[in-house]
Amino acid sequence: MGIHRENGRLFIRIFNSNTLTNILANLKAAANMVDDPVLLVKSALSDVEPDRFKFIDGFPVIKKALGWVIFDCTCRKGENISVVELSPVRGKINRRLIKPVNRGFNAVIEAAIHATRYVGLKEEEYLRQIEYCNTIVQKCGGAREKEAMKLMYELIGYKEIQ
Amino acid sequence: MGIHRENGRLFIRIFNSNTLTNILANLKAAANMVDDPVLLVKSALSDVEPDRFKFIDGFPVIKKALGWVIFDCTCRKGENISVVELSPVRGKINRRLIKPVNRGFNAVIEAAIHATRYVGLKEEEYLRQIEYCNTIVQKCGGAREKEAMKLMYELIGYKEIQ
Lengths: 162, 162
What we know:
Oligomer: homodimer
Strand content of chain A: 25-35%
Strand order of the largest sheet of chain A: 1-2-7-6-3
Number of strands of chain A: 7
Helix content of chain A: 40-55%
Shape of chain A: globular
């Protein structure tokens, strides 16, 4: 989920979802910065296994994240979409990396976004977009990116044609 | 330019170009890892200003790069495309960052690739792809990504419609 910064304040825009329900119930959220494409796909399209989390002040963060930030949340609820302001209360950097651009990795992210829409709306156009991203993954990605695409196709119930 | 790793060996595939001519003449190349979208666009579509380089063993690298590696090169010349094997001889990490995924930044990269093809082939389809990337940049990118897109439109001689 993308965090927007405007004049030094942090916001997310979020559709009605379990995530929003959780935020409204707890008024807390964590942002985990991760660089594993398989984990990204899993968190976008299914549930991340409980043993991948550890608890900080009773709040779950991902153990293998590059870093995380826990926020206090203020919500402006909308009919379909709500705006949540995020105020950082605690954060940790686990690892700093030098990471060259990887078009394959980036294509997994774009495909995952199309996949969440495909799951909701079942429109063929999203499959076409996922297939396009997959051609980039197969050309530019490493083993982990290819594994992420395989998992994505499984999670959206689509038999990959290759 | 993407570097591929196969069984621990590093390769680039490269079309006939000034870059290939330079590599064949010197049998050396440098990979600069950069995270500034404006600099990426500039290096893809025009020349980076000389004062942005410093010299390491007589070889230019980008001062503001996150890091760089200088390679000895072995070329297998092809008619249109050549394969260059890269053997690292010296490298430096200047900065390690924790960098969350930014779809806007990633979209600048994809757009720059379409732009290099548009400049060569002048096919409208590439403009359409650049425009699609630009919608992501305008939605998800920061000021630097938007500036990079503006520069890209200038460098390809296309009047952006917004």
